[in-house]
Amino acid sequence: MKKIIIILYIPLLWSCKERELLVDLPYSGDKMVVYSVLSPTEVVTVKVSKTYPPTGITTYINGVTDAEVLLYENDKLIEKLKYTDNGIYISPNSFKPKIGSSYQLIINSLTLPSITTSREIIPSAPTIISYNFNENINSSLNKGVPSKKLLVKIKDKNDEDSFYSVTVGAYSQNIKSYLVDFSVDQANSSVFPCDFKYQNSVFMSDDCFKNSVYEFKRGYELNPFFLINNEFVKKDIEKVVAQVRHLSKSYYEFGKTYYEEEDLLRAFVTPNPRFNNIKGGFGIFATYNETLLELQLK
Asked: Residue 62's domain spans which residues?
């Protein structure tokens, strides 16, 4: 048997030859990439970078520095943003968007094609009926880790499709750390659940609770690590704050295209192209409004 295996293996070695395949990778040229999320509590800030060719050729730059970033409110030009560093542009007048107004960016560059964002409206703040963070529960992720259940009742808007997110962070000496969360009494659908995770937030569409009161339920572990002097250390939590946001549809869709099912379920979900609402380029321009809830630990 050993002799037969050797005889079959030697021809395979002779037949295996490396061959170079020339493939033209699709690339439409360098374009601007924009990231900007507006809210009525934050000064307008825009990050402008660029795409890079998939050829292995390094053309890295630390953000686009020659951009003309124009901010429009209700289709009227209100200001030209000021460059700071690393491709970041901010309002020179510390302008904060207004609830109910629409905003758009037009960005020009001497070296890259101009781009235009979609028009985005600043939504109203989410309506919170009640919230509770009193119940101690067992973590479904890490046995023995102290955890609490968060219940937030959100009143949905009656006249529009609405999108929400909840993010919970702990603070110690003004340093923030996001709490690890896990599902509580909520079943997921086979494709997209009524809520899904995007980074440290849980995103929701009112498709599951349109024109009614939605009871958000989630468990949170209370043993975060805080980044202090470039090291992650455990410290006592001084306060816990939940950010409940009312999102623009663009913000929700952007988060949804980054959502991934867990473990083997990924094999049965159709991949989603990354959401993009930038004409002539790539990226995301979106809006939100939020309500902050300080949660009691005892």
From this structure: 32-121
